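For the sake of transparency, this paper describes our internal protein records without simplification. Because each token names a local backbone shape, the row as a whole describes the fold. One such record is reproduced below, unchanged from the form in which we store it:
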Amino acid sequence: MYQFDGPFAVTAPPASTPQDSPGYFSDGNPATGQAATIVPAEFLNALMRECLNLLHAAGIAPDKAKFDQITAAIRRLSQTLGDERYVPVSEKGQPEGVATLNAQGHVPTEQLPRSKVDLAWSKITGKPTTLTGYGITDAVNVEEKGQPEGVATLDDQGYVPTEQLPALDFTPADGSITTPKLADDAVTSSKIAYGAIVNNIGYTPLGTKGDQAIDGTLNVRYWLHIRNPNDSALRSVHHNDGTIGFVGPRGWMARFGDDGNLWTPIFGWLSN
């Protein structure tokens, strides 16, 4: 259905003529001299406008390529009941019909109009420039790792790298400071308990397997943790209240007193 748009069409409808006696169209009768009926523009305009108004009342836009719009309009208007309007089930999710809702009460994605907005990240303006701007309060910027006023990193063994540890106190007896030179597989300060005072430490090879021993004085204030590289077991040397001994996962394993007394978890102090 469409509004006439051919050659010689006018932009405004002609004025209506006075109402005459109702009648019918006729092809005429030459035998009796009856002339054929001439269909006036007023009548054709009336038919066209009635049809267009029917589509308008049903909410359907005229389409020159469709030939069932009058039927659709009548079907839609015939389902109006009181103040409520109903549509056939066949129109759900169909063009010129009504949208459906899924189980969550939302219009399915395939029935939404395609967005004409360029949502490329580079096209969005006013983006925040900080974590706080995005509402993130429990994260650290990756650029702060290993940086002053930032956060420390961990190596592949789970330790803070030596270069990020605070400097240890060197107190040599002779007043000089010797910088220890460590082999690639030697113990590093990141694996010595914090609080140790290291004096003139060197390393002496033992045997032919590359093992090493500390050659010098290692003063421990509280704890010295020793980790077995074979099974990662951790044991500690601890001194307190005039005793020094080894501590394992279950507590003290052995203690030695300054008076030469020996303590074990099974026998207690052997002097008793």
Summary: The mean pLDDT is 77. Helices lie at 41-58, 69-78. The longest helix spans residues 41-58. The longest strand covers residues 196-206.
